[in-house]
Amino acid sequence: MADKLTPKQEAFTLAYVETGNASEAYRRAYNAKNMSEKVIHNKASGLLKRGDIRVRVEALQKHHQQRHAVTVDSLTNELIEDRELAHKNEQASAAIAATMGKAKLHGLLKDKIEHSGDVELSSSAEWATLQAAIMTALTPYPQAHRAVLDALEAPADGRP
């Protein structure tokens, strides 16, 4: 599969798998010195939309997953251990980060969603699951728990 890509495209896929950042991968693979961040982002996004690039990235990711025995279960177990350690050390932000990591790993949280128009999240099963995970993570921290609950119950337009 890699032989169908240009050397720069292959370098991009390798850098993307290594860093997880398309813009950084583009900078490493192409001469982007005189490009704005927006142009780099757009070009990197364009590459990731190409079928041959996506197939190569997926193949590289699968290879790394197998080589390192990375599974959803192994990552979930690591995040559970990290969360327990964070609670033990009374580090609320680290516990929340572990919970959010689990949510992301299991497809309940996406990095960025672009949408135009109205969306009713309160009826979404994914939102309910994520909200429950957040509130559970905050249970040992009553002030943070209350603050998040208040924010979730506030009107969307920011009025009290």
The amount of beta strand, in percent, is under 5%
Number of E-state strands: 0
Report how far the terminal alpha carbons are from each other: 56 Å
**Mean pLDDT level:** 79
Largest β-sheet summary = none
- CA-based shape: globular
Order of helices and strands: HHHHHHHH
Helix content: 55-70%
- Label the structural class: mainly alpha
- The tally of helices reads 8
Radius of gyration, CA atoms, in whole angstroms: 20 Å
Which residue ranges are poorly predicted, with pLDDT under 50 across at least 5 consecutive positions?
none
Précis, in short:
This protein has 160 residues and is mainly α. It has helices at 7-19, 22-29, 37-49, 51-67, 72-88, 92-105, 125-138, 142-153.
Q: If you had to describe this structure to a student in words, what would you say it looks like?
A:
The protein is mostly helical and 160 residues long. It is 68% helix and 0% strand. The protein is built from eight helices and no strands. The N and C termini lie far apart (56 Å). The mean pLDDT is 79.
Would you spell out the secondary-structure blueprint of this structure?
Elements: H1 7-19, H2 22-29, H3 37-49, H4 51-67, H5 72-88, H6 92-105, H7 125-138, H8 142-153
